[in-house]
Amino acid sequence: MAIAGRDESLKALLDRIRKMYYRTESILILCMDGFMKHKIASIDEAKKINKAIYEEENELIRLLSSKAAEPEMDKELIKSLMAVVGHIEMATNGLDGILQNIKNKVAGGILFSDKGVNEISQLFKETLDMLKTAGDIILTKNEVLKRYIDDKYKSFNQIADTYSEEHNDRLIKGICQPQSSSLYLNIVDSLSKVVWHVKLATDRLFERK
User: Nearest-CA neighbor of 20 among 98, 86, 80?
Assistant: First the structure.
């Protein structure tokens, strides 16, 4: 059952939170475009969306605080939604780190091996899938989608760990250069932070004290 019930103003806030997820998806898609095509323009556009998300977070926290003051309002639900908004912002912080690393990659003309490119591309896709699902959960609070997020999170970490090990092997063999290695690992680490906060946001939505 949807968590907004019959409260139209709360539904409107939930829709704005869902749109935060959509904006975060847009940033990730621009990250992918900048990474694959070496496009600084995509990075600059993503940074603008990032700034808009921070502004929206502040406004939503203010509105949710006002909502919590209503006599019949479920205070624990409001606390959960505030936490969700905070975790979305933290996820965008992770994306901001990726943007900077991609910008450095493009500016320095640093190339990854074909395998490295394919691995990062796959992790982008896994992260995007989690973000899309998390956005759908906001209005539905669907238990099946919650389990999907949990499974995707575990799968992401397994894939990321495997890729990092294989990357280290390439570095030892001289297939990967040290300059590209740090960028690769930083991007993987930042994506891991993004999916971690997406999972925490979803967990908090389902948590009831």
Answer: 86
Q: What is the token pair recorded at 5?
A: 């019930």
DSSP designation for 70: S
CATH class of 8-206: mainly alpha
Cα 164 to Cα 184: distance, rounded to the nearest angstrom: 9
CB 60 within 8 A of CB 86: no
Structure tokens at 17: 């939170």
Question: Are the C-beta atoms of residues 95 and 24 closer than 8 Å to each other?
Answer: yes
Phi-psi region of 92 (alpha: psi -120 to 50; beta: other; left: phi over 0): alpha
Cα–Cα nearest to 35, from 92, 113, 96, 103: 103
Residues 105-141: pLDDT tens digits? 999 999 888 899 999 999 999 999 999 999 999 888 8
116 token code pair? 């490295």
Q: Considering the entire predicted model, what is its pTM?
A: 0.91
Please report which helix (H) or strand (E) contains residue 12, including its range.
helix 8-37
Question: 3-state SS of the chain: helix, strand, coil percent to 5?
Answer: 85, 0, 15
98 touches 124 (CB < 8 A): no
